[in-house]
Amino acid sequence: MARSPRSRMSEDAVWAVIDHERLSLADLLEDLSAEEWVHPSLCSGWRVCDVAAHLALAHTGPARVALGMVQARGNFARMIADTARRHATGSQRQVTTEIRAMAGSRRRAAGVSYLEPLVDVLVHGQDIAVPLGRARPMPVEAAATAATRVWTMPWPLSTAFQARARLSGLELVATDIDWSVGEGARVEGPIEALLLLLTGRMAGLGKLSGTGVGRLSPAGR
Asked: At a CB cut-off of 8 Å and minimum separation 6, what does 141 contact?
């Protein structure tokens, strides 16, 4: 049976990491040039400003989500993209200020746990930093907690990444923390690279090794 590790971080500890990551990301965003602000991110079709705007919308209430769903004709993925791009028309300063202002808040979008904001800020932070060549190391324990959440997400949240289906037949093993999931051909490397893999990003592929690496497509999501 495939292993599913449990999170070893308390809810308070997770929120403390989220606060720190939001503040440090706001610092990074403030430092970007106008060209970097509109640079392509790791997310196909999304610019850095779009990803930042998506993070700034983390406190979106159910009424606004419902309106967005109507505008997107019921397509959830389209709603997420459309609302982010509309919000990205605001200034760099506005979006950055909104992200910074979230630090200390425990508010979250309807239908998600406190772990989804952790996944979002860690992964989207890389979506922004990696293509810009900006160093943004992930805290290892938090990355492992986020990776566990992605692997064990219940439906319908699991449809966002489909990690267990995409990575079926592989055993993922972290080399910098005691963490592993799955069964089959081994893929090992830093937990940061594994979290990116779990969320469909191939940016960490060069840091991974093992007999299962050949099964991973560099043209992944």
From this structure: 8, 9, 177
Which residue ranges make up each domain of the chain?
Answer: 11-140, 147-215
Placement of tokens 């900006």 in the chain: 134
Phi, psi of 187, rounded to the nearest 5 degrees: -125, 120
Judge contact between 106 and 68, C-beta under 8 A.
no
**Amino acid letter at 219?**
A
**Count of Cβ atoms closer than 10 Å to residue 56 Cβ:** 25
- What is the distance between the alpha carbons of residues 44 and 181, in angstroms, rounded to a whole number? 27
Name which of 96, 72, 95 is nearest 83 in CA terms.
72
- Cα separation, 212 vs 214, in Å, equals 5
β-strands 180-182, 185-189 pairing: unpaired
β-sheet with 170-174: strand ranges across? 180-182, 170-174, 185-189
pLDDT tens digits, residue range 31-41? 999 999 999 99
Could you report the per-residue pLDDT of 173-205, keeping only the tens digit for each? 999 999 999 999 999 999 999 999 999 999 999
Beta bridge partners of 182: 171
CA-to-CA separations, 207 to 72, 149, 174, 175, in angstroms, rounded: 38, 22, 11, 11
pTM of the model: 0.88
Q: pLDDT tens-digit profile of 154-175?
A: 877 777 788 999 999 999 999 9
